[in-house]
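Input chain follows. Return structure tokens only.
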Amino acid sequence: MMYSTRNSVPFIIAFLFCFLIIGCESNFKEVQKMGFAEFSPSGDAEGINLKYTDSGRITANLISPKMLDYATVEFPFVEFPKGIHLTLYDKNGKETYIDAKYAVQHKATNIIDLQDAVKISNQNGEMLETEQLYYDQKNEWFFTEKKFKFTSPKGVSYGEGIDFSKDFKKVNSQKISGELQSE
């Protein structure tokens, strides 16, 4: 019995093609992995209590159960995956309190992104609650485009979109509703 080479060519090509596909599959997964950079923190701390000072005066106190520092990535940031409690002090010693279940501090912009059940309050009985709030550390300014609830001794108001100074003295709100007592 004789076999024709002409009939074997398609069989050989199909066999080689299957062999290449099977052989390259494991290499393909390794090549995919090479495309992803390792993304792990360069610093990891638990139970932190940081005090920031300026000319010997405490300006802020940050407390968090966990901090991850990504200082070696292209856009460095610090992550607080288990939330923060931040107390800001003005030059007269008045305090502003900030709580959030999650936060990220972007080092290049000095902006802190506060997320999930964010509450900011002060000693005057004013409190703002929202799901996301940004804090510009350099300008000491807060802002959000999310819905918020603002409570003060004068009443309660609701809105969407607000920006304000850390002491609530300057407030710019967008869509707002509620009842406030006039002075």
